[in-house]
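Request: Show me your protein:
***
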Amino acid sequence: MEDHRLKAFCLVVEMRSFSKAAKAKFITQSAMSHLIKNLEDEIGVRLLVRRGKSVVPTSAGRILYDHAKRILAAYGVMEREMHHVMGTIKGVLSIGASSTAATYLLPQVFYDFSRTYPEVSLNLSVSNAESVMAELHEGKIELGIMEGSESQRKASAEEIAEDEIVLIASDDNPLTKKKNLNQRDLVLQTFIMPEAGSGTRKIIDEFLRAMKIDLQELKIIMTLGAPELLIEMVQAGLGISFVSKWTIFKKMKDETIKILTIPGRRLYRKFYLVSVDEKSLTMAGSTFRNFVKGYRFFMPI
């Protein structure tokens, strides 16, 4: 329950754009403009003006924005309390997740959650860790699920699962015959890497720096955003790569790829449930948060 005009107005102010705000609200730009115009006509004052390519609030618009944020927060509190009194959990819950989390952690979680709370409609957007954080701060999603530690410094993050990053090669790569790899072995190989900005890539870069490997020396022939495609490229023999153990258990069964061993070094990371402000979560968001925190995840291999 909320005033859609106030929500639309706040989105335009925060995103400095009618088109971006319309996209975030899943409506057309003309519909977004109509909502703002309707609000301005009712109040009787101009709220937004264009400056170059951006849209900024007028002095009256800044006053309205401050009050609107408090009003929308109050709507959220009212909704949670009403649902609590009625004993119902329902509504639309928007969640953002990294590709690995969305593909390998969330399907079973969503299935179990939907069986328990059938009146909650789940919307999932899949992107890299940086984009998930941006969507959280822009109010497009309530919760994010991603890997890495960077998220802890930007929002409230709670660990929900553990992952291991492993180095893989095709089964016919000469390195699979070596029991242990050294720094030179890696520098001489061609790499296929996760995309820049992903949680996995940040962890890999930190790991290689800890091994005293100059990232500029690596022969990176390709960067990919989809873990499944990255694994297919490794399987085809185009190079080696670091991937999540969650993503390779089927290929391991087929024995088409092998895990390479770096002596004395194993790379672990955490998956986190992230929110900007726990107090502003809807009843559905708060319920999902508690549900995931109590969920038991098992490493597939």
About this structure: DSSP finds eleven helices and eleven strands in the chain. The longest strand covers residues 156-170. The domain at 88-161+270-293 is CATH 3.40.190.10 (D-Maltodextrin-Binding Protein; domain 2). The longest helix spans residues 59-86.
